[in-house]
Write a structure and sequence with these properties.
Bound molecules: calcium ion
Number of helices: 10
CATH architecture: Orthogonal Bundle
Radius of gyration: 17 Å
Largest sheet: none
Shape: globular
Strand content: under 5%
CATH topology: YutG-like
Order of helices and strands: HHHHHHHHHH
């Protein structure tokens, strides 16, 4: 086992973003879901707000770690590199295997109850890119990725809901910016 003593956070963020890209998921794909989720509550919502929100969520370490763990397991399952019975549980996306959802839900906890309920909704109503990933075609394994995308979209939706309220309440852009920084755990 080789262990590197210091892993820079920029390296982790870059790797997580690359993982999504390699799996064919763009920030815009996730932003589309955010738009669908938030537009009914926010008349002036623009697509670019959703893209920005997804981008900010991807700055969060907890999310980056969830992406790295989840996609790694999906890829190892595709390559038949896991040991049994885990290999089959993940490759088949076995209905009672809930670790994919546990990781994704855990990553949604940092953005409060709106993120949690939105994640739950997206888990049931597969929307946009999640639906595409959920389609089992026997070649690709997205057991973890679909839930992680749901979690990112849920967090970005919750972030927009809270920011919209804060702006209505007269909070300045600087205060909101500071909040994002504090949130970056
Ligand atoms: Ca799943």
């Amino acid at each position: 086992m080789t262990v590197r003593s210091h892993i820079k956070s920029q390296e982790v963020e870059k790797a997580a973003r690359k993982r999504l890209e390699d799996r064919g998921v763009t920030i815009e794909d996730i932003a589309d879901i955010v738009y669908i989720m938030q537009a009914p509550y926010n008349e002036s919502l623009r697509m670019e707000d959703c893209v920005e929100s997804v981008d900010k969520v991807l700055e969060k370490r907890e999310i980056q770690h969830a992406i790295l763990v989840g996609v790694e397991l999906d890829v190892l399952a595709e390559e038949n590199k896991l040991s049994e019975p885990l290999q089959s549980l993940i490759a088949q996306d076995e209905g009672l295997f809930g670790v994919d959802e546990t990781i994704a839900l855990g990553a949604a906890l940092g953005y409060g109850s709106i993120a949690v309920t939105t994640y739950g909704h997206l888990d049931k109503q597969k929307i946009g890119v999640i639906e595409r990933l959920d389609t089992k075609n026997g070649v690709r394994c997205h057991t973890f990725l679909d839930d992680i995308i749901g979690s990112i979209a849920a967090n970005a939706s919750s972030r927009i809901a809270h920011r919209t309220r804060d702006l209505q309440d007269g909070m300045s852009e600087e205060d909101l910016e500071m909040r994002d920084e504090e949130d970056r755990l």
